[in-house]
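ARCHIVE CARD
SHELF: 3
SLOT: left
DATA:
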Amino acid sequence: GNPYASAVDFSLLTRNNLAKRFYAWDPSLNTVGGYVLVDDAGSTGTYSITPASAQTNILQSGQAFFVQTTANAAASLVFNETGKSTVSNNTGFRSGNGTSEVLRTSLYLKNTDTSILADGVLNEFNNNYAAAVNMEDGPKMENINENLSIVRGTSKLSIERRPLVDVSDTLFLHLGNTTSRNYQLRFEPSNFSSVVSAWLEDTYLKSSTPISMTEPSVIDFSLAANTTSSVAERFRIVFKTSSTLASNATTVQAYQQNGVIKVDWSIARENNISSYEVEKSADGQAFKKLGAFAPTANNNTPVSYTLLDKDPLNGNNFYRVKAIEKSGDYKYSQVVKVLIGSGKAAIVVYQNPVIDKTLVLQLNNQPAGKYFVRLFNGLGQQLLSRTINHAGGSSTQSIPLQSVVSKGVYQLHVTNGKNRTTEQIVVE
């Protein structure tokens, strides 16, 4: 327990052979309480807390907690006067580096009129993290009642840190100490820039349910008094990608213009196409048809199309183009996004790692003018130069990279003559 008569800040205590994490008991979890992991072993400067809890890195006077050793040697935690704190939250701590994609998964006891948080896990994706289990990952400490953990090999984790999401990634969830009752899984994503989609696979129902990568998702399920429905490894999260238009779709872009959103796309070779459909979504997952076009050329000549969305949403507007072939098969373009409203001004790569060698650049609430895009390899050699005429507000531009890059890491520079944005991108 904290031996001081005041609160202390765990990050200010002196740790010898101890990880920068601790476990504390939260009596408000489940029906009898549960353990909370407060963790900064990833050294981002921001504590990750799971399951969601009022507990922070501040330890109250007399509060008990567990720590984890990092080596088979003498370990100690030293309390000094400099570790004292007068606050009871973490609002004074700086935020993380902002590049991690985060997925929080929470398990709830679902009653008739209420839901009780029982446990939860956290996945952080960043290319600075290792693929293997190491000290960046937070081991699971078992509760008395229900337990939710992430399984990697022989390890059960409360926090798992790994490189950015790949379309071949799978997250294996483990349920323990469950009973015959109704439950609920809640998924809360943040900072996802990739266009990969996530699906919750249920091995008992043999179902696959989409999980939004931009908005919270809620999925109810029940456990009955049989071993099949109550198997601990019933659920897993699988990341996928939809089939996309290949080299015949050269560019897809969307931008705000005079109160509407203009969606432009061009096709280098239009042979065998029977029609196009432009689809729209508010969350990047559930799309509906916005408009349809018949091909004008239907041969190997380049052709361009435009659709105006006269009723844009306040917030995110996602678009994609569906090309329907004469055989009935169809393929999708990359997803582009336009933000309407008072969102934060930024220039970001919408999907990083870049897939299908198509760079999707997003200008959010940027002033009108010319923007100069340049791509460099690790030797500082310029591989691509492109000028974008931005009408102001928000827009998304797709830039093909097929002829200039191979798989690897590159530096992207975007400038409007006054300010410059530099971002490291990975091309897959």
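SLOT: right
DATA:
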Amino acid sequence: MARLLPLLRHRGPDGSGAEQAGPACFGHTRLAIIGLDSPHAAQPVNKGGRLLSFNGEIYNFSTLKEELIREGVATSGESDTEVLFACLEHWGMEGTLKRIDGMFAFAYWDGNGNFYLARDRLGEKPCFWALANDRFWFASEMKVLLAVGGVANAPNLSRIDDYFYTGMVNGSDTIYRDIKEVDPGHFIHVTLHDGQIRPVVYWDLVSEATQYEATQAPSLDVGAFQAQLDLAIASRNLSDAKLGVLLSGGIDSNTVAESIVSQGLRREIPFYFSDNDQPELSERRYVDILMEFLSERYPMADLKLNVQSIGFETFLANLEKLIWHFDEPVVFQNSPFLAGLCSMARA
């Protein structure tokens, strides 16, 4: 574990640790988002022979804390990590996954021979696993699994057609033959007594959409949709770390920006835009239109636009860096621009 944790230092520069309970050993590098200085947010959590390593955010953790307290479960609720652990102890895996709203990937050992590896509903957070040396390994990046020994870095040639057709390997397979990915809306259940590895579906987009269309969609007008959108964006404003908005000039980022400003969610709102240094390809004019609109409609808001101009050489350098992070070819052409935005925001 000591040699593997440094491979993920870039994902979690704010702390690291390793814990063991029985046959389970978890390692974690932390990026502090909620409960920045809370000891309850330290990971991996090791309590009562149970382990938790959690990557992401649980947006409704305050509501879940109140529900736990009503049911007699004591928790300070200073961090979503602590609340998630209490949920798993109290409601179990499936009961917890029905209740939590967030983006997440987490591993949980229940102390009774059951190991779980879960991923959020739409797969926002990465989660990979592999078998090697008679052990089950998991990580948020594939490079860790390739470093454990016994996991081949051989390409998954059986899915090469899929890659060339869609630009990625879809489903639970990956571009590496020996590495699997937890599907969105799934968790992996490993039972110690028989060594069985069982994928379980806890959420399905098609079923959810069909049910929504039959029950709620007919009554959803423009105003109701706007209210739902604002509620969703506001629920993601719980971070104790600073927040910013990455702009592209497109409909989605403009909508998010307008909702944040109109709701007054943050007093100071930095915006970040990555420009192309070729004027004929630049989309800066759309971002300028948005900033003018927001400044005129919400004159009391403290808005700041940060612009980074990226040339071809920087684009290629960012692309090479992303390939190292992703451990596979980059799917989206705008990813190097987003990487530039994130570097600027971090600085």
